[in-house]
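Running this now, will post back.
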Amino acid sequence: MTHAERTFSSVRVAPAMPCWIASSKLFSDSAVISMTLAMAMALRSFRSGVPGLAMQQARLAGRGTPVASPPDMKIPPEIKFHECDRSTWVEDYIRERLQKLDRIADGDITSAVVTVSGEHLAKTKGNVYGVMVNIHVPPNHELVVNKSRPIHDMHMEMRPLVKQAFEAMERQLKETLAKRRYDTKIPEYSEQPTGMIEKLFSDYGFIRTVGEDREFYFHRNSVLHGDFDRLSIGTEVRFQPQMGEEGPQASSVQIVSKPGASPL
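Update: finished.
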């Protein structure tokens, strides 16, 4: 209606401003053509089951702005459809969720396979669809999530199923990455490591390991035989490394040599 009013007003003032008529009519015709193309795009996308994305693309197209595609993953994913028709909008949404996983993993996913499967049942029960996500991250972690449910309306219910599967994978991936960071920070020792007291306060301190240059927090209660008050800067100790809530920490701290004066 906006374009129709603009064109009508242009014709109405034609006798007084002929030059303005021509430019306005060209502008209005271009706008109408752009909006017509935009609505056609929206209708095609809506029929494919992605109405929200369709309207966004239509608005951008109406403004003459291209819709940017997200960057690809370093390792091309494999998306399979088994016993069901391949859907472009489902595949696009899966790629979008895979890219989010890749960002969480900081581009460290070495392989990714997503399988969408369908099992045809009676019409009253609907069809059971499943989404299985399988990814690998270094060094040798394989993560698998498999979600399924009966689906009556593909356009309305398939996207939530894909979302459920990938949200479960995101949680699993974050847990794996956290464990991997733990393993990286706290290596396995054949025997208790040794270090020097680097910082010392009234009830806690920090140990710097010899050779590896790692820092470990320890509390007064972690020092064996009640020897915390015998510690000083430079005292050599042996301890049991572990991961605390705020980082590496030492337990079972035992003086090896150079017992010192009272702490600061």
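The domain at 194-257 is CATH 2.40.50.140 (OB fold (Dihydrolipoamide Acetyltransferase, E2P)). More later if anyone needs it.
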